[in-house]
Design goal:
By secondary structure, this protein is an alpha+beta fold. It is 35% helix and 27% strand.
Amino acid sequence: MDTRERLAVRYLVQKAIALYESAGKAETLARIADPEGPFIRGEHYIFALDLEGSLLAHPFSKQLVGLNLTDLRDSDGRSFIRKVLATARTRGYGFADYQWQVPNSKEELYKTVFFERVEEIVLCSGFHTIKENPLEAIYRYSRTYGSCREQE
């Protein structure tokens, strides 16, 4: 779990919520849709859904805006948008993990997205991660840092 990445995407969503509360829905969605706008930070960006699953704004996938993504499945066949929407309706915010293709690449990585509901929209931002087999992680750790056992 990458705490720094989680904080970064959560902060970006909080900034979008602050804009929504001060400038309204139309202005917020317009700024989210701007590929050079204030909600692009390195690999992090905001996208917005309504509570029915339609994409309201996205800075890079404009061809998907207006489409209902409720039945969209990740590479593992999971309906992750349904999970996001269900949690947004009940709890208001959360994290969801799914497997997704890296933009401008054929590589597939796991993605973690933070989302928060504000009125009738869900603001989302995520990051790509690499999931390892636990044994591979232990092997990599021991090769990098040495044995976990005490040295005699």
